[in-house]
Amino acid sequence: MNKVVLVTGANSGIGLALCERLLTQDTEGLQLCLACRNMRRAQAARSALLASHPTARVALLQMDTSSIMSVLNAAQEIKLRYNRLDYLYLNAGIMPNPQFDVQAFFKGLFSSKIITMFATGEGILTQKDSITPDGLQEVFATNLFGHFLLIRELEPVLCHTGQTSQLIWTSSSNAHRSAFNLEDIQHQRGVQPYSSSKYASDLLSLALNTHYNKQGLYSSVICPGFVMTNLTFGILPSFPAFLWTLLLPIFWLIRMFTNTFTLTPYNGSEALFWLFQQKPESLDPQAKYHSLTSWLGNNYTQPRKMDIDLETSEALLEKLMQLESEIRRKLKEKQKSVSTFSQ
Predict the structure, then answer these.
(1) Residue 289 is a catalytic residue
(2) Which residue among 194, 199, 212, 289 is the active-site one?
(3) Please, which residues bridge with residue 137 across strands?
(4) Are 147 and 8 in contact (CB under 8 A)?
(5) pTM of the complete model
(6) Which of 199, 88, 188 has its CA nearest to residue 143?
(7) DSSP string spanning 52-116?
(8) Which of 129, 145, 251, 334 has its CA 20 to 30 A from that of 58?
(9) Could you tell me if 31 and 58 are in contact, meaning their C-beta atoms sit under 8 angstroms apart?
(10) Which tens digits make up the pLDDT trace of 35-75?
C-alpha cells in the first residue's frame, strides 16, 4: 500500500533534505506532498526532486501556517486529495528578526557553557515578534498554532481504525522551559518566542499522544541539531554567507566535543528519516529524538528525555482548544456578516 506523506516547510533546508531521503528509499511506494508558503520555491523544490527521481509522485500544496484561512483551505484540499495521511511532518518554522547578544557571546566563549551556547543558542539569541492579520503572535501562529489547527482539521484522514498515522514535529534544542509561560502561551510579553514555541510543541506532542493514541495517531518530536540553513544565516543577517563557510572549520573542530553539530540539512534530517522507519507504538512520547553526527561524520538518532510534564501539556492543549473555538466563532460571525451585507 502506498504511503502518503505531507511535509510542511518542504521547499528548503531540513524539509527538502527529508523529502530527498524519503524518495531515495522508496520512490514507487510513496505519495509525497510538499506544503509550502512560497509556491515559486515549492515548484523549484519539486523540479529538483523529480530531476533525481523522475517517476516519483510529488504534489504541491500552498499553505502558510501563520494564516488561519490558509491552513483551513489547505486542510480542505488535503481531504479532497487523500482519504488518509500516514505521516504528517510539522516542519515549517520561523525565527524572525533574531537579535545577537555580542557581549553574552564573548562572555560564553570563556565559560564552561561554550558548547551549550553554540549548540542551542541559549543566552545569546532573542527575537522581535510581530502580529499576524488574524491578531496572533507570528512565531506562535507559524511554529505551533497553525500546525495544531491543521491536525484538528485533518482528524478524518489521520485517525483510522486498524492503522496508524504519525505526527512528527521539528523542535529544537533551543526549546527551554524557562522561555515558556502557561499564562502567556503566545509569548506576548517575552523576548524568546522561538524557544517558547518549540517548548510548546514538545508539550503539545505529549498531550496529543494522550488523546489520540487510541485512534491510531501517534506524535513524536525531533531535534535536528545545529544545521547551516537559511534560518541559521538569518541569526546574523548582515553577516555575508561566505563568512559562514569560513567558520565551518571551527564548527568541525567543535564537533569533536559535541555530537549535536550536524551542520548539513541531510545530517539534520536524520531523526526525521529514522522515525519514518519505526513503529510509532514503540516510541517514547516523552523523548525528543535527536539527529546526531559523530566527529567522524557518522549520523545516528538518539532519544533524550524532554523537560516536560503531563499536567502542563494538558493545560496547554486546553488553552489551544479554547483559542481554536474563539477563532472559529469569530470566523462564523465574519462570514455571517459578509453574507448579510451581500444580501
Answers:
(1) no
(2) 194
(3) 131
(4) yes
(5) 0.88
(6) 199
(7) H-TT-EEEEEE--TT-HHHHHHHHHHHHHH-S--SEEEE------SEEE-HHHHHHHHTSTTHHH
(8) 145
(9) no
(10) 999 999 999 999 999 999 999 999 999 999 999 999 999 99
